[in-house]
Request: fold
Amino acid sequence: DAGVIQSPRHEVTEMGQEVTLRCKPISGHDYLFWYRQTMMRGLELLIYFNNNVPIDDSGMPEDRFSAKMPNASFSTLKIQPSEPRDSAVYFCASSLAGASPLHFGNGTRLTVT
Amino acid sequence: EDKVVQSPLSLVVHEGDTVTLNCSYEVTNFRSLLWYKQEKKAPTFLFMLTSSGIEKKSGRLSSILDKKELFSILNITATQTGDSAVYLCAVRNNAGNMLTFGGGTRLMVKP
Reply:
């Protein structure tokens, strides 16, 4: 299996620009998670989906953040407008069932200047 | 709110040493505790623990859970430079399926 695939690997953008991060989960996995990792706050859950339906988005920091999962093999996390404090590594993860371990993608390193 | 605290924050040892990493937690309706290893990229799964007192082992790594005292330890024996990484502990409750992570322990193994 190819594992969880995220794109782009790196994104550098200017404050105010829209940023879209993409994720392809492992085939057959029905849970998808978006996490953000910073030195100060560690790994924080932003939102997760079950069978393409958002279940818990309480970790989404502001209305500037939105996530979608239009089908079982694709999800996006959008930030509009981006701010320097959004700079972080954004990880997507998927799991086969609720009690299974999460499998993480390699992350997208976002830098907002 | 679920909470996970790992100690120490960082650790430097020499090859061949044995290390013990600690994870304490507070969680409503505990379901499982997981350990991950993070080198430069994605966290990779090591162990999932659900029952107290049952050791999980993989090569030189082992882990055990104490649900009464609300902690887990990760042991690494005969450390190698390739063990250098951040080790993350996470808990899952019965209310949802997300993981709450601790801040990690950064391990450096010197030759």
Summary: The first strand of chain A starts at residue 5 and ends at 7. The interface with chain B takes residues 4, 31, 33, 42-45, 48, 50, 55-56, 91, 95, 98-99, 101-107 of chain A (CB under 8 Å).
